[in-house]
Amino acid sequence: MKRHNTWQIASTLTREFSLFVYAKTPEFASDPFFTRGVSADVIKTLSSPQYQEKTTSDPNLEKYREALAIGKKNLKALADGGVRYGIGTDTGVPGRFQGFFEHLELQEMVEAGLTPMQAIVAATKSGAEFLKAADLGTLQKGKWADLIVLTKNPLEDIKNTHTIQSVYIAGNPVATKDTPK
């Protein structure tokens, strides 16, 4: 892959994660960072014994856990080997929540052995490079400035990406922590 400059887009670690995490009520079901973006009905479903039984009855449940572990090892090996990679989640299908699962993907990437900076670069600069979008991916003069301002350093703990203070699109503030919901 390195020799042919082939990209690994999407370790999509959260794909496998989403196939077994609902065997019980997931920790994130009570996380305000998650709950403010979904309806009460979604939380009720994720916490319901029926939904959990559907997940636990899947004969491949343990294979998904194994696939996640293998995916993490593969991502780390590819990154260490110099293969170019970007973030991916396959979100948008039921059980994989757009916006939130990208943050989970960053966490899974760090758990795989990447540094927080490597995970963040995969989600920003590398994604833009893969798309050949030279005006995106880094904060530089003359580039499109979509960004978030955090209250805590994600390089110290990748979960600090949840501490969003402000959101800017094209350099213009569109939301701040004080913006009415």
Radius of gyration from the CA trace? 18 Å
The largest pleated sheet is described as: 3 strands, antiparallel
Number of helices: 8
Residue stretches low in confidence (pLDDT < 50, at least 5 long) are none
How many domains, in number, for the residues? 1
Structural class: alpha+beta
* Shape estimate: globular
What would you say this structure looks like, in words?
The protein has one domain. It is built from eight helices and five strands. The chain has helices at about 15-20, 30-35, 40-45, 50-55, 60-80, 100-110, 115-125, 125-130; strands at about 10, 85, 145-150, 165-170, 170-175. The strands form two sheets. A three-stranded antiparallel beta sheet has the order 3-4-5, with no helix packed on it. The chain has a two-stranded parallel ribbon with strand order 1-2. α6 (about 100-110) packs across α7. The mean pLDDT is about 90.
Features:
two-stranded parallel sheet, 5 strands, 41% helix, 8 helices, alpha+beta, 10% strand
Topology at a glance:
Blueprint lengths: L7 E2 L3 H8 L11 H4 L4 H8 L1 H8 L4 H20 L4 E2 L13 H12 L4 H8 L1 H6 L16 E4 L13 E6 L2 E5 L5
Parallel strand pairs: 1-2
Antiparallel strand pairs: 3-4, 4-5
Helix pairs in contact: 1-5, 6-7
